[in-house]
Amino acid sequence: PYLNLLAKAKGKLWFGTATDIPGVEQQDQEYMSILNDSKIFGQLTPANAMKFQFTEPEQNNFTYAGGQEVIDLAKQHGNRYVRCHNLVWVTEVSEWVLDRNWTAEALTEVMKNHIYNVVTHFGDSCYSWDVVNEALNDNGTWAPSVWFDTIGPEYFYKAYQFAEEAVKLTGKDIKLYYNDYNIEYPGPKATGVVGLVKELKRRKLKIDGVGLETHYEVGTAPSYEQQIEASKMYTALGVDIARTELDVRFTQLPYNSSGLALQAKEYYDAVKSCVDIRQCIGMTVWDFVDKYSWVPGTFPGKGGADIYGLGNSNYTRKPAYYAVGDALAGH
Ligand code: G3I
């Protein structure tokens, strides 16, 4: 099954993948041939290349080459979409930001300068920007970051204000998203995100969508019904949603065939709950092969999260791949 073709046939904009390019992946021909197959992936997200420390490694010295590589791959192989990721986050902030004691005013200027430069540079090569990434704790309160700790909650609204101003400077239609994890099911964090979107709207700021990251663990993924319920909490506010970082990791390795079947079902439910909601515009896996998954680096001993790489083969498709195909086809 061709995942992107199936997604488009269901009225979605894409089925896509993140990719950690520039990186060793570029020497891997099999990886590149799948990545560049627009029948499978109709959208790319740079897993790292557009983050703060890669785009502004020194103050007001911007480096766009890495992000541009991902855009070029997307455009050259089927004129595909790019979700640009991300402008303001706790992680991957440059040392020069972290090393200084900023006043709120000065750090707000840093944020503004970063957002204006990056957004206007890439323009409408970006279908959308994840403006603020992962602003909340699981209990729905504000998460610490250099931004929050220095500026307070206003950092969040300022980020959207600056992003909107930058989009206006481009004269293009670029969507602005909020992106987070553990918000794919009802709970305090999902309720917190509803509050953020409502407050953005109350302030008449631009917010076009909520990105549901969808990083799950085999055996504990939310049900289809829970995912539909949470999705409707967002779409009821008049914003789009997308599945932005889908993967389902095993907590214990090696996995066995019943584990693979459960993983496949959890992929199926996540994808089906996007297919069944009109305002869910697309689905993106957070890279597609276990070999390059972020999971083992962050959660040692866990893994096997992706749709390719069965049994440590390089590129054999897992049952999860076919389950995604079934969900997209409406089976
Ligand atoms: O490139 C260096 C390499 O030179 C060095 O030898 C190696 C040793 O530590 O690190 C490499 O950098 C790593 C980088 O990924 C590139 O692979 C960083 O340490 C590592 O922290 C970084 O992790 C990324 C993580 O975000 C933190 O920014 C992951 O690749 C990336 O997949 C992950 O993506 C996030 C999303 O942005 C937001 N949602 C959650 C998601 C998963 O954590």
UniProtKB/TrEMBL annotation:
Cellular-component GO terms for this entry: extracellular region
Enzyme class name: hydrolase
Annotated organism of origin: Rhizodiscina lignyota
Hydrolase keyword on record: yes
Alphabetized Pfam families for the sequence: Glyco_hydro_10
Record family assignment: Belongs to the glycosyl hydrolase 10 (cellulase F) family.
Residues annotated as domain GH10: 18-327
Designated name of the protein: Beta-xylanase
Gene3D superfamilies recorded: Glycosidases
Catalytic activity: Endohydrolysis of (1->4)-beta-D-xylosidic linkages in xylans
PROSITE patterns in UniProt: GH10_2
Compartments reported by the entry: Secreted
InterPro entries: GH, GH10, GH10_dom
Involved pathway(s): Glycan degradation; xylan degradation
Enzyme Commission number(s) of this protein: 3.2.1.8
Chief location bin: secreted
Any GO BP: xylan catabolic process
Keyword tags: Carbohydrate metabolism, Glycosidase, Hydrolase, Polysaccharide degradation, Secreted, Signal, Xylan degradation
Top-rank taxon, per record: Eukaryota
Molecular functions (GO terms): endo-1,4-beta-xylanase activity
